[in-house]
Amino acid sequence: MQVLRPFILRRLKSDVEKQLPEKTEYIIKCPLSKRQRCLYDDFMSRRSTRENLRSGSVMSVLNIVMQLRKCCNHPNLFEPRPILSPFVMQPLTIILPGMLLNICQGKDLEETNVLDLFKISPSCDSLFAYSEGHRLAMNEQMLKDYLSTPVDVPIPKLKGFHFSRPPP
Question: Which residue range or ranges hold the SNF2 N-terminal domain (predicted)?
Answer without folding.
Answer: 2-77
